Amino acid sequence: MKRNYLAFAISLALASSLPAYGADDEEKQQNEETEMEVIEVRGILSSLKEAQSIKKEADNVVDALVAEDIGKFPDSNVAEAMQRIPGVSVNRLRGEGQSVTVRGLSGDYNVTTLNGRKIASETVGRDFNYDLIAAELIGGIQVNKTQQASLPEGGIGAIINIDTLKPLNVGSKVAGSIEGYYNERAGETDPQASLLISETFNDDELGILISANHTSSFTRFDSHSAQWGWNEWSEAELMPDGDPNVSGRFPSWPNIMVSTDQRERSGGTLALQWRPTPELDINFDALYTKYEIESTGNMISLALFEGTNLDNIQDVQFGADGHTNSITIGEPGNMDSPAIAELLESQNPRDSDAMQVGLNLNYIWDNFNFNVDMAYSEAEDASAAVSWVVVRTAIDTLEVNWDNGEQVPDISFGDTVLDENIDYGAWYARIDGDKVKDKTGNFNFDGTYEPDDGIISKVLFGTGYNMQDKGKTYWSQENPSAYTFRNGATDSEWINAPDSEKVDIAGNTLWGPLPGSALNPGNFDDFMGSSNANLPNTWAGINIPGLFDYYRSLDSEAFDQYLVPRPNLTGGNTYGVKEETIHAYAEMILEDEIAGMPYMLDFGLRYIDTTVTSWGYSQDPANIAFDEDGLFTDAVDTVGLVEFEGNYKKLLPSFNGKLGLTDDLVWRLSLSQAISRPPLTNLSPVTSIWQNEEKTPPENFIYENDPGLEPYYADQLDTTLEWYYSDSGTLNLAFYYKELHGFVIYEPTRETINGASFEVTRPYNDDENQSRIRGYELNWLQTFDDFLPDPLAGFGVQANYTYNNSESGEYTDDGEQLPFKGLSDHQYNVVAFYENHGLKVNVAYNYRSEYSLGKQWYWSNALNDWTSETLQVDEWGQLDMQVGYDITDNITLTLEANNLLDPDYVQYLNGDKNHVDYISSWGRSYRAGVRFKF
């Protein structure tokens, strides 16, 4: 493996200066937790100062969040809270923070732990969805931005640890909240509540803590999508007298959708703590959380590329920029040459849960501290039922106008109203999805030795076993188009029903007309909030149970055969990967003074030995055979269970240094080599074989994964300057550089199999090319108590700014290198707060500049081929506010307002913000209630 100068320098420094000593993440984590929790944090300023104290005292580069009070985190959403940390940006799903990116690296490059142990995740990949855990269950979060040998491996971006509370640190307390949640777009109020009970016994020797929470929320989410890209057409393809030399681009399948989510989250924690002597501390902790979402979308979809619509185009106006200004299909009042419109009902449920149980024993013996930790975690997504159900109808006229000065086009239907009273015909019904089950477990032994004197202040060491076993099963139907008449046919290939059940829709035979039980009335006011586009606000929805009852009445056997989803073992979509890692590490910390300045040097080595076992249902190239026309025989489709076992070993060096330039000024330098493991999809042992039968002769393809892929690795440099200039202010500057190697790329080759030519695509680790991320962070905290008289004292501000620059190694078709996906060049957070005389006010603004989602393909008429362009997300700024008032020492009234500016989330193409691929809006939301603590 190719290694650059930075990796060599790290290895050389460690080899020359590090003896065989070490320490473990779990023990150090536990000590840091105790330091954090033993201080009772109450209020905004106390929370911020405690987070700064954790940062200052840490041996590595760490940013932290601390609960403002028992059961009160800085934000009601965990991911939203983390965006206050420099370099952390949040990824939202339907307006709710779900996952985070740290210094440009997504969750696939980060590791999330709960109380120092890796927690299972219900996602298909390695990411973790923080919306699964309620903020009321959390005591604090630490984002480790640099490596230590005692920290778990796997996080090139960060190691993110979530702490829950311990009873002996909390004491005898009862705390909770009762709130109401209101989303202005949905117009409903839902209850939310939390409760925490902590009690100690035997003179604080034994403690128990129980917490529980439940949140319910109903939200609405509006969107417009170009869907399937802006493809290019010549005027001659669209109009009988069109000019073949004039062309323009328009979306193939534009749509507007109103979605509603009913969200239910429930969870709880249990902590038992026994400290029979000052030297022995035994902790048992458990967490369970469940998140259910019933998500329904009502869509109007415009199949502009569909044959009937293309045949009935009356007018097309192309713009000078190469995009279509407007298109008109059909004539007002004339149903002899109508347009086709579609209604689509989507259901995207989520049924996720996660649990973790752990036991920790910490014992102090003389100068040694020993820690034994064991834990088990499970997570599951049992949804597997994403549905897209489509029906079609005829309308006299369809007009779409993109040249309206808005990011959403004008859409009108002439004299037709798409309500439940017109005729609709059956079209498409897809139900599919993944079921995911993840299990993690660990058994770790960690130790610390602290000499009585000498330059060596601490030696940490440890070993352990960690396991993750994740499996994915894909569920799908045999034929979602079973109730569709193919290519304008008047007889169905799959359904046996009488002709009386057929209806003519714009010259096409469909099953129908659909009964009233298959449709719902729909009225959607204020679509997209601030948009001034001319859009319909009334269209029917599909009642999927009623529609499916109608389908069964046509042919129940066909329905059961074609539309009922079952586990799908074809296509390489069902597989599992188990990773078992044995680790050992040594870490030595030196502390002394140089020229009167105290310093700390932390040298570490972490050794890992990982065994990968993967399984999947795969096609076999040995079954490749052809008929007389050169087409595959049925034997090619045969799948069988295959398994693979592989192994890799890594030695990961790390160095963290800290120098106290003055009592208030701290300089840090960190060097390390870190890894992140490849995506689980790449590690499945599955081979897929297919054929393009439309070509003459047919084109043959093989796509393989490789369970033997090595982890990515990164050589990292971090340096910070931290100025703690007063009790009321700090200023921190950080610079970081990451050089990443070994990204997985796929490269096609030509091979001859059974006498036929195949394009074979396999993944491999690219060790020749590097990707780079560099940037800096600026963080400032200032309170104004020293400058303002009472009652104005209590004002403060926290602000941070992050600049990122990256080279991903991925290029556009024009040869321009793309940045990392999801990486904004600029992001900043500003939090202004006031806390005095029982009043607490917190106003937070979060901003991130535009970022790339990578390449998107579209059809080019000029090239007569597919080509790509860059898909970007527009800049985003969100304003949130929290207000609390202590009516007594024990009771606080609360009000929280989120997304006050209500910006649109916009994806656009090639840097042209008028060339919108997707736009959505979810409105403002509010929480109001009461918190109590006794």
3D structure, described in words:
Helix content is 9%, strand content 55%. By secondary structure, the protein is mainly beta. The protein has one domain: Maltoporin, Chain A (Beta Barrel), CATH 2.40.170.20. The strands form eight sheets. The protein has a 29-stranded antiparallel β-sheet that branches. Strand 13 and strand 14 form a beta hairpin. Belongs to the TonB-dependent receptor family. It holds the Pfam family TonB_dep_Rec_b-barrel. One of its GO terms (cellular component) is cell outer membrane. Residues 399-900 form the TonB-dependent receptor-like beta-barrel domain.
List keywords for this structure.
single chain; 934 residues; mainly beta; Maltoporin, Chain A; 29-stranded antiparallel β-sheet; 9% helix; 55% strand
Question: Could you provide a short overview of the structure?
Answer:
With 934 residues, the protein is mainly beta.
Contiguous helical run count:
10
Distance between the termini: 60 Å
Global mean pLDDT: 88
Q: What number of structural domains do the residues give?
A: 1
CATH architectural name? Beta Barrel
Largest sheet: 29 strands, antiparallel
Helix content: under 10%
How would you describe the shape?
globular
- The CATH topology assignment is Maltoporin, Chain A
What's the number of extended β-strand segments?
50
CATH class: Mainly Beta
User: Helices and strands: which structural class?
Assistant: mainly beta
**CATH superfamily descriptor:** TonB-dependent receptor, beta-barrel domain
